[in-house]
Amino acid sequence: IQADAIAAITAATDERSLDDARVAFLGKSGTLTKASSVMKDLPKEEKPKVGQLLNQARQAITAELDAKREALIAEADAKSVADLDLTLPGRTLPTGAIHPLTLMQDRVTKIFRQLGFALATGPEVETEWHCFDALNTPADHPARNESDTFYFDSGKLLRTHTSSVQIRTMEETAAPPVRIIAPGSAFRRDEIDATHLSVFNQIEGLYVAENVTLSDLKGTLEFFFKSLYGESTEVRFRPHFFPFTEPSFEIDVKLTAAGKDAKWIEIAGCGMVDPAVFDEVSKARGNEAFGSDKVTGFAFGMGLERLTMIEYGIADIRHLIENDQRFLNQFA
Ligand code: PHE
After folding, report:
1. Is residue 269 in contact with ligand 1, taking CB distance under 6 Å?
2. φ, ψ at 299 (rounded to 5°)
């Protein structure tokens, strides 16, 4: 029996046929198991001898089974490694990329956070008061026209700029100082072309405290644009007009790192918060800590799309909303 079993085990070619051999000899009705049943009929003095022989056979067969099983596993392993073609190119999984507007917003936020500016938000559906009146914008100002602004039947509107967050923040703050930036969407009834979208993003900034000066404004924004676009970036302040700041400026930057014939590019609006804005917040909301006799401040606002287009040399603003993978994957 032992010799037959070892022959069957040796002949096995895989785990399945090896197990068949085990069952044939050691299983419940296997040859060796059956042979063991003669034990009970043997005379007493022969039992130890025969029992020992049967045990030896079982042990020998079991050892052979174990050895063969290991040999089969080793053989299968070797075969699967031999089948593995290590020269095949790897399979890459498709990965997403962070949108360039998000990349840029994160960078802007990080720089202002270094300067102690906190993040603030406000609603996109705004009241006329927060978007215009409190910002010293008269009722007949062109920005308030139905042809420029999306109005709801309720009289509310889609905010045309993030400057409304200036007002919201001062309303919600018990006492100065306020030092915030507010990134968010703005909406205008503009014709869509290479430089205009009707939904776009701005980053608003506001710093209010005792004795905030124009040199704080200039120093902060110069530091910001040099941090963003490189130390050699030139920054200039051109007098301008906004209803809610006085004096007001537009900021231009010249990216000298880009080359000799770099041009001045308009990039942001800013100014010293108009006293009328402080007085409106303080009177209308009973928040006297923000009275124009107590505080001064500066504010600024810039377009996130514009910052991003300048950084990456994007010629058409519509690339930023079309979700074309060929465009987006360049930022991976
Ligand atoms: N709200 C202005 C705009 O949308 C930008 C601005 C913000 C100007 C804050 C001055 C101060 O054009």
Report:
1. yes
2. -140, 155
Cα 113 to ligand 1 centroid, rounded to whole Å = 20
Query: Please, what sign has the CA dihedral across residues 183, 184, 186, 191?
Result: positive
Instruction: Name beta bridge partners: 253.
Output: 235, 265
Residue type at 73?
A: I
Amino acid at 142: P
Complex ipTM tops 0.90: yes
Amino acid identity at 182 = A
Burial classification of residue 67, based on how many CB atoms lie within 10 Å of its CB (0-12 exposed, 13-18 middle, 19 or more buried): exposed
Q: Tokens representing 249?
A: 């400026």
Q: Is 246 annotated as a binding residue?
A: yes
Q: Is 133 exposed, middle or buried (0-12, 13-18, 19+ CB in 10 A)?
A: middle
For the record, the structure tokens of 332 come out as 């991976």
* Confidence (pTM): 0.74
Amino acid identity, position 43:
P
Contact between 217 and 272 under an 8 Å Cβ cutoff? The reply is yes
**In ligand 1, which atom is closest to the CA atom of 202?**
4
The model's pLDDT over 79-98, given as tens digits with 9 standing for 90+, comes to 888 888 889 898 888 888 89
Could you give the 3-state DSSP secondary structure of residue 235? Answer: strand
| Residue 183: cis peptide before it, omega within 30 degrees of 0 | no
- The pair of structure tokens assigned to 233 is 């970036």
DSSP 293: T
- Indicate if ligand 1 lies below 6 Å from the C-beta of 245: yes
CB of residue 144 inside a 6 A radius of ligand 1: no
